[in-house]
Amino acid sequence: MLGGMACISGQCSRGSLSEEESPRMFKLGHMMDQAFSEITEEFGGKDCSDIARVDWLDQESVKEFYQGPTSRKKYCQQVVGEAAYALGEIIEKELQQDED
Description:
Blueprint: H1 2-12, H2 23-40, H3 48-52, H4 59-67, H5 73-99
């Protein structure tokens, strides 16, 4: 999610502090937030802890996450892939509107 928002901000944000923010940035950011909410709904939240369900302070839990046969790492990878795809669709849709 954060990477998607950074990408949107980098493309749509103002060039200097004296310029006004583009409403497009907020529109695309909202679209990305909505898409990410839909992607992560099955996990009960948007946070890494909701998706991975790992106690990052427990060395054995972290080891299991990275190496265990029942690791939830695949869900994290799934969410990242789906979020990247959603970001691409959002940007592509916005660029297509510019051409119309």
